[in-house]
Every structure is written in structure tokens, then in C-alpha cells.
Amino acid sequence: MGRAARLRSKRLAGKLRQIRTALGLSQNEIIRLLGLEEVIYQANVSGYESGEREPPLPILLKYAEAAGVCLDVLANDELDLPAKLPSKPKHTNR
């Protein structure tokens, strides 16, 4: 018996690349901004942006926080990133 393919966001890779470029950062600079120097490498970011890899949820959350968007904006293919990044999320914990 085979396994069903896991659902994946079709637009996630492009959104992650869009966040990094809108912030004017290289792949290594986004790693530093996210505070992930001890966790991921430039090859990881490259894989996330090409769609070859899918980042773990805690890393997605850091991208969302850096962009000032809610996590659902990254995960939901029907939602677009704001034109201006970083943005202000519509809801916050504060």
C-alpha cells in the first residue's frame, strides 16, 4: 500500500523568497535576522525558496514575524503577502 501525498502549499516557496528580497537580505542575512545561525544553513534557505524543502513550523513562524504577517498568510495559497514588508499583522498577542 502506498502513502497519500502530503498536502503542500504551492506558493510558500515564492512567499519566503519574496519576504527575504523585500527586506533586502541575502540568504545568509535572513538566517541571522531570524536568529537561526545554529539551526539552518544557506542550503536550507535555498531549498525552502526553491520548493525542494518545506521549513518546520517554528521556522515559518520566524519568517512570519520578520515579515510582520500572520502565519496563515504564509500557509494559505489564497492569501497574498502585503505589498509593503514588513507589515503589521491584523492580530497580535499584545
Give a short synopsis of this structure.
This protein has 94 residues and is mainly α. The chain is built from 5 helices and no strands.
Structure description:
With 94 residues, this protein is mostly helical. The protein is built from five helices and no strands. The protein has a domain at 12-75: 434 Repressor (Amino-terminal Domain), CATH 1.10.260. Helices cover 47% and strands 0% of the residues. The longest helix has 11 residues, at 12-22. The N and C termini lie far apart (48 Å).
Keywords:
94 residues, mainly alpha, 434 Repressor (Amino-terminal Domain), 47% helix, globular
What about the largest sheet? none
- Please give the count of helices: 5
What Rg, in angstroms, do the CA atoms define? 14 Å
Q: What fold name stands as the CATH topology of one domain?
A: 434 Repressor (Amino-terminal Domain)
Number of strands: 0
Walk me through the topology.
Elements lengths: L11 H11 L4 H8 L7 H9 L6 H11 L3 H5 L19
